[in-house]
Amino acid sequence: MGTRNREKFVNHRLRFITTTCHDWIHLFKDESDFKILADSLQFVNNKYKAEVLAYVFMPNHIHLIVMFEDGESLSPYMHDFKRFTSVTIRKKIDSDGNNELLEKIRVNSKDQKFKVWQDRFDDLYIRDIKALQVKMNYMHENPVRKGMVEANSDYKYSSAAYYEKEEQGFMPVTHYLEAMGYANHYYYGRVF
After folding, report:
1. How far is C-alpha 44 from the geometric centre of its chain's CA atoms?
2. Which of 38, 116, 125, 170 would bridge 86 by S-S if both were Cys, CB 3.0 to 4.6 A apart?
3. Is the dihedral of CA 32, 37, 41, 47 positive or negative?
């Protein structure tokens, strides 16, 4: 890619993010669990002036591609997301009466009694549109690799159908070409 629009990558701080459930436990089992994740992401997006360009919610981890508009907001963004979802998911497990799952997330720590997420998250700074497309394809193929669906666009808790069928899915996203300023441009053989 030439230098045109390269500043959008530098100024907007585009990140590929992965965060995993504590001990890789499968905590997300139904639509109400995934709705907690989506609602929390919408909240932190508004608070930190961020946009989700792609996502996949798996039973024990999530992948996101997020564009931040105002400076480096990744750590507080993830802190708020994980704090809210941890409390809400733990309460849901408790109210569902799933004592076995509740015991799996119980920890012996004076600072906390339950642990939904691993302490850290992984992130990668995306520097160009090709890297963005590679990461997006990787994350959208995750449900296929795990044998959950035959085609990535069949997985409901992902942005794959949005990019392949132009159907806004479970959680709204901003098209990466629009976010990068390529709307109404000819790019990689398609007009957007």
Report:
1. 12
2. 116
3. positive
Query: What length is written for the chain?
Result: 192
- In tens, the pLDDT along 63-113 reads 999 999 866 688 999 999 999 999 999 999 999 999 999 999 999 888 888
**Residues 192/178, Cβ–Cβ less than 8 Å:** yes
Q: Where are the domains of the chain?
A: 6-191
pTM exceeds 0.90 for this model? no
* 191 vs 183: CA distance, rounded Å: 8
Q: What share of the chain is helix, strand, coil (3-state, %, to 5)?
A: 45, 20, 35
Q: Is 54 left (phi over 0), alpha (psi -120 to 50) or beta?
A: beta
Q: Which of 57, 49, 71, 48 is nearest to 17 (CA)?
A: 57
Give the Cα separation of 169 and 163 in Å (integer). 10
